[in-house]
Write a structure and sequence with these properties.
There is one protein chain. This protein is an alpha/beta fold. It folds into five domains: 117 residues, no CATH class; 103 residues, no CATH class; 133 residues, Alpha/Beta hydrolase fold, catalytic domain (Rossmann fold, 3-Layer(aba) Sandwich), CATH 3.40.50; 91 residues, no CATH class; 170 residues, no CATH class. Helix 2 packs across helix 3 and helix 5 crosses helix 6. The longest helix is centred in the first third of the chain and has 22 residues. The protein is globular and about 75 Å long. The N terminus is likely disordered.
């Protein structure tokens, strides 16, 4: 049965809430409290606790209602549940830095109860309301309910066939922001100034992004899950989706805009950082990070994706006196050297904020591009695209499926010549997919092959594979179906690492229940799981799902990435999986750990890694790790939220009496064949 994370979500009594809220936290898996300057009174907490209990009781009466089991009913229920979740998390982490925040909590609980009553009566009144209202959705990552704000202009009706443009807006960092504060700021707000000036032009989606993480990891997943939820409620014009943000939201716009350039009709990045070293004022040579960390910076650093601005119109802004103007000028230099257009706005005399004229030009840019829309399928005649990870390997009719050098720069420059030929030049690409209907012939690095009629015309995409001599071959129907199943276990999109990548989709932690090979290692793995529970709850705003190894089912294996905690003695699933990993990279006994031709004593060392799961090769298996960055990194800067351990590492277990984090003794990256790059 599910462990601590699930227990946190159960209905609790007022008495328990008082005890927990006053003394410590709502549940034992909670992490460190937020830095607070205000302590609510017992009476205030008692009143909030009573309100929460009433809302939970009302929700309990709604969850089994048959009319709410539909897609639309589930959406309306989530719109209520998000108010409960906001209150639970605020009390759990004692997030009330100012006296007024307790009042915010009371108002949020009151609105949640009002919505529950309206839904119970069959008269919801918020879902078509003009202006800004709070919505909720259930995330596939962890089953949590997450909020977003949606602004509707006058005249929006799901029954009307009109398709609506959408502006996806990314908020800046606010260290004290939580779900309650987000709801309080957004719910009931009227249309923004830009919408008021042009009424009826678009829907606006303000994402929560799971807090303050620059829309990385599950924060990135949140953006696309929230957008998918909007698509489920209203008719969205897919060719007219705009992305923009300021400060941390600007960093998120660079990240999501350049990694997914075919998803937006325009991108606006205001005063957001674009790389780690410059933003942290570090020298990439003298302050160079360890090899695996330095390499995997290329997953997020926007400077490595400047070429992708060719595929989506981008406007960037910085105040003349704002240090963050460096992001705009850096990208201007890079795109200029690549002969890629980029519109740069500079606010005269401004610090970290917009001036009115720049703001007007910024929004006018998006209106112009939205009216035109992004190219529809088949209309994009030229692509210039680069990536350092297969997670971000898609642009319109092009998909990079394998890299020769994993985490290296892969580039494809392609152009459709008339209606008959698409000509491509590639670097660091060994497997490529093209949409078959873009041309009759594909010419890849000088090799001409059939495209439109390839693979017997039975597949929507055509696969091409690079040969050892550098030439390319066309895969037929049976070959294409076979290689899509990844029989030789290569890194592929969604299965490319590093460790942190597993937490962008649905994952399940599996705790060992048997005696460990070594007591110290057993205690370390349990502490690692506890730390992951605490940090994910606080910083990614959800409870991780945990199951004991003896309770793992075949359906769970099919549905989730598995995160295994323990060693071959304590965790029966880990013991089953370890010898079946490709190439058997790890040997783990009571005496020793052997990885990459090196040995360590297993009494005081542990292994972490990511790998396709031998029990279900379409999903990951991870050993003994949550996110590889920790609380200090969340508190320091969003730029620090990058992978620390690559694909595999050996850690020195700290002495219990001394405490502290485990030390990295060795780390590495798997190559494209899931083999160690060092032997």
């Amino acid at each position: 049965m599910l462990a601590q994370g699930a227990r946190c979500r159960r209905t609790v009594s007022v008495v328990l809430w008082l005890l927990v809220a006053i003394q410590t936290l709502v549940c034992s898996s909670a992490g460190p409290a937020q830095d607070a300057v205000f302590q609510p009174s017992e009476q205030q907490l008692a009143e909030a606790g009573m309100q929460l209990q009433e809302l939970q009781q009302a929700l309990a009466g709604l969850k089994d209602r048959s009319e709410l089991q539909t897609v639309q009913g589930g959406q309306l229920l989530a719109d209520v549940q998000v108010y409960e979740k906001a209150a639970v998390w605020m009390l759990r982490f004692r997030e009330y830095p100012k006296a007024g925040w307790v009042d915010q909590l009371r108002r949020v609980l009151a609105e949640g109860r009002r919505r529950a009553d309206r839904l119970s009566a069959g008269t919801p009144d918020w879902h078509l309301r003009t202006g800004t209202t709070i919505r909720g959705y259930i995330s596939a990552v962890d089953g949590s309910v997450q909020p977003y704000a949606l602004t509707l202009p006058d005249g929006v009706d799901p029954a009307v066939s009109r398709r609506w443009p959408v502006h996806v807006v990314l908020h800046g960092r606010a260290d004290q922001m939580n779900e309650v504060n987000f709801i309080e700021r957004m719910d009931g707000r009227g249309p923004g100034a830009s919408q008021t000036e042009r009424p009826g032009q678009w829907l606006q989606l303000d994402v929560y992004g799971r807090g303050n993480n620059a829309y990385r990891w599950s924060g990135e997943t949140d953006v696309f899950e929230a957008l998918a939820d909007v698509r489920g409620r209203f008719r969205v014009d897919e060719n007219r989706v705009v992305l923009h943000g300021f400060s941390m939201g600007g960093a998120g716009a660079w990240h999501l805009g350049l990694h997914h350039p075919d998803q937006w009709c325009s991108v606006g990045a205001g005063a957001g950082f674009v790389d780690f070293y410059r933003y942290q004022k570090k020298d990439p040579e003298s302050d160079r990070l360890p090899a695996a960390q330095h390499t995997t910076l290329g997953i997020y650093d926007a400077v490595d994706y400047a070429l992708n601005a060719f595929n989506v119109p981008i406007v960037t802004y910085g105040g003349e006196k704002d240090p963050q103007l460096l992001a705009s000028t850096t990208m201007q230099s890079l795109t200029g050297s690549l002969q890629v257009p980029l519109k740069v706005l500079v606010g005269p005399g401004m610090g970290h904020e917009f001036d009115p004229e720049s703001r007007r030009q910024f929004m006018a840019f998006h209106l112009e591009k939205s009216l035109a829309g992004r190219p529809q399928p088949g209309q994009r005649k030229q692509i210039r695209f680069s990536t350092r990870t297969l997670r971000y390997g898609r642009c319109d009719w092009l998909r990079i499926e394998e890299q020769q050098d994993s985490y290296g720069a892969s580039t494809v420059e392609g152009e459709i010549l008339g209606s008959d030929v698409v000509r491509l030049k590639t670097e660091n690409v060994t497997l490529l997919r093209l949409s078959r209907d873009i041309a009759g012939t594909a010419e890849i690095d000088g090799t001409a092959m059939e495209l439109r009629g390839a693979a017997e015309g039975l597949l929507p995409d055509v696969w091409f594979q690079r040969q050892s001599d550098g030439s390319w071959s066309l895969l037929g129907y049976q070959e294409s179906r076979a290689i899509s199943r990844n029989p030789e276990l290569r890194k592929r999109p969604g299965l490319q690492g590093p460790i942190d990548d597993a937490f962008m989709g649905s994952f399940l932690c599996v705790r060992g229940t048997h005696p460990p090979l070594n007591a110290a290692a057993g205690a370390w793995s349990e502490q690692t799981l506890t730390q992951f529970q605490q940090e994910f709850a606080k910083w990614f705003r959800g409870d991780i799902r945990v199951v004991n190894d003896v309770d793992l089912t075949d359906q769970m294996v099919q549905d989730h990435h598995l995160i295994l905690f323990g060693d071959p003695g304590s965790n029966s699933v880990l013991a089953k999986v370890l010898p079946r990993l490709h190439g058997k990279p790890v040997e783990w006994s009571a005496e020793r750990i052997r990885v990459g031709g090196r040995e360590w004593a297993s009494a005081d060392h542990g292994v972490v890694l990511i790998h396709p799961n031998p029990l279900n090769p379409s999903k990951y298996v991870v050993l003994n790790s949550g996110h590889t960055f920790h609380e200090r990194d969340f508190r320091a800067s969003n730029a620090w939220l990058f992978p620390r351990l690559g694909d595999v590492a050996v850690l020195k277990i700290p002495v219990p009496a001394e405490g502290g984090d485990a030390a990295v003794e060795w780390s590495d990256l798997f190559d494209g064949r899931w083999e160690l790059t060092t032997k």
